[in-house]
Amino acid sequence: MVGRRADGVIAVRVTAAPADGKANAAVIKALADALGTRPSGVTLVSGQTGRDKRVQVDSLTATELAVALERLKLIGE
């Protein structure tokens, strides 16, 4: 599940276990799918071992990314 909170944070929920990088890989794939891009265009920049993560999306322009983020379902309201 990928959604956008009112405060602008993107929430991603995966079922993969946080072992051997499986959860991180699942987060990258889920985020890439939700944004309409390929997983190789999404890089985990920080948060490899924590719940909060920072990613970089190189496969979309700033405008494309903004449009894709706006399309995400608003959650938590």
What does it look like?
- The chain has a three-stranded mixed sheet. A two-stranded antiparallel ribbon has the order 3-4.
- The protein is 31% helix and 23% strand.
- It has 77 residues and is an alpha+beta fold.
- It has two helices and five strands.
- It has one domain.
Our count of helices gives 2
What's the arrangement of strands in the largest beta sheet? 2-1-5
Secondary-structure element sequence? EEHEEHE
Q: Whole-number radius of gyration?
A: 12 Å
The proportion of residues in beta strands is: 15-25%
Compute the separation of the termini in Å: 16 Å
List the helices and strands and how they pair.
Layout: E1 2-5, E2 10-12, H1 22-35, E3 42-46, E4 54-57, H2 62-71, E5 74-75
Summarize it.
This protein is α+β, with helices and mostly antiparallel strands. The chain has helices at 22-35, 62-71; strands at 2-5, 10-12, 42-46, 54-57, 74-75. It has one domain (2-75).
Note the main attributes of this structure.
alpha+beta; 3-stranded mixed β-sheet; two-stranded antiparallel sheet; globular
